Amino acid sequence: MTALLVVMPARGVPAQRSAAPSPAPRAPRIDVVWPEQGAVLDIGDSTFFFGSVSDTSARIVVAGQAAHVAGNGAWIAWVALPDDSVIDVPIEARTASDTTSTSIRVVRAVWSPHAAVWVDRRSMTPSGEVWMPAGEALPLTVRAAPGAIVRLRLPDGRLVVFAADSIAEPVASGITAFDAGAARLPRPVRGDRYVATLLGAIDAGSIGLDTMPAPVDAAPAVLEVIARGDTLRAPWPIRVARYSSRPLAVVLDDDPQHRGGTDLTTIGRAYPTGTYTWFFPRGTRSAADMRIGDRVRLRLAADLVAWVPASDVQLAAAADDVRPAVMGSLAITADSFGAMLRIPLSRPAPASVDERARGLTISLDGAVSDANFTRYVAADSFVRTLTWRQVTTDRIAIDVEFDRALWGWRWHVDATDLVFEFRKPPGIDPLHPLAGRRIVIDPGHPPEGACGPTRFCEPEANLAVASRVRDALVAAGASVIMTRTGDGPVGLWPRVAIADSVDADLLVSIHANALPDGVDPFTNNGTTTYFNHLPSLPLARAVQRRLVAALRLPDLGVARGDLALVRPTWYPAILTEGLFLMIPEQEALLRSSRGQAAYARGIVEGITDFLTEAARAP
After folding, report:
1. For the chain, what are the domain ranges?
2. Helix or strand or coil: residue 543?
3. pLDDT one-digit tens code per residue, 185-224
4. 561: number of CA atoms within 13 Å, CB side?
5. Which among 62, 26, 179 has a CA at the least distance from the CA of 453?
6. Which of 346, 450, 532, 570 lies 20 to 30 A from 359 at CA?
7. In this structure, which CATH number among 2.60.40, 2.60.120, 3.40.1340, 2.20.25 belongs to the domain 119-168+190-240?
8. Model confidence, pTM
9. Bridge partners for 135 per DSSP
């Protein structure tokens, strides 16, 4: 029999227990949101990194430089990088008891390696298909080893010699838009950029007017870079087509397969890589006389050209030619929104619009006038005057003046005519300015969108703010249409199509901002509002003023931007960038109910101010 001995502690003396070991402190976890591993960055000597750390007491060190760490563990750093093409950037999270290390590899988009002879093949421009009138010059550019002999050997044995480019390095558009010191940014003349002009390289042959020029199968031109006794050769990625000097009659269509999802507008640029300048409606006819890569040059008039996407250019019917369009007599008629102008033309001519406070000028290029009279709406003074001028032998200017500020306008091709619609301001009750207004609210993204250091991203943030805006507007009597209410992606043009389909009074697109790589986030952040067309500027100013007061962030002002959601002309349209999601404190603000309410309040109060002012306008 086994005796069981039980030892009882003396009264008043606690039993002795073995102490549980204290848990070992956990090493802090580092989450790097940007740059992603292996990201290709178009930067100078510095750029930003941001992310979060699991231990809010940790100190973050990026490439030896301390990062700014917020109370929630979000961090951001502005880091100087070495002169190299592939850079491994060390990142450490240091606490009193532990250190966690990681590394992010980034790649410079453009970098001059230290090899004796090299060429950046991505920099060879132009590339792709080329056709052009005989005798015209084709500019060539390439980046290669400084101090090298650079030349292009053509298939027929001729040599085109390059010269070092003497023009200063351009400042990236993102930097000039944001950086407070952009005017002081260094713009060095780099020794690795070369330019040349190709003359007479395109053999003018004969082509029929019922076919586009096709590339000719031939041996490629070869670039030679010679330095320090070494030669590097690389084929130039260009395919040349024979082409007669007679322009081709073409018609523009951004959806030739009728798949939908486009705005039925072709964008024109003043030069192949320039900003958007013209917006040609589907069906516009013109003359094409040159192609470089994925851009085709239209000869709008004797002194004016526009570059458009090659995918939008279709050969016109064989019976068409490139003679000027003939404009007939003009007529203004009333419609339910205001007034309509029909411009009768023998073929749809390229047109552009210049806006004024109470008027606009429509320029018709490649057109001549045969107008004998101008007809007005007798019972309506909305259109005050309508006049036209033959500015040059192939350009007409039509001036339209209104008796009040224009609310919006739009145009389309009807058979061969151009039809413009001009929209009066709606009837607004100054005591209840939101009552009955149709307002489209667009929660920006998805797809894509910026994310903050703790991975709070635009799609979720923008929808949260937009929902609050909707509720406040509806409570004040407005009719609100949301472009999305869920997490699914919506394309840009479907969002615009929603606003167009309901003849919206206003469109407001809600976003959070991010900086381009290489811009200092500590000196470039705040609130801004974008517009595109002149009738939208008063709305942009009113909303910007209220957003700055509500969010209490630096005022970056209103800006004209060529963004899809502010491009519609039928109603005032703006895009708000209330704050920068990449800044830890601003991300935390947008995460909070307080911050979302403040963002929404600024938008609603700005819309109300704008409509109230519009109601009081004469």
Report:
1. 30-108, 119-168+190-240, 248-315, 325-423, 438-616
2. helix
3. 555 556 789 999 987 544 444 444 456 777 666 678 899 9
4. 21
5. 62
6. 346
7. 2.60.40
8. 0.88
9. none
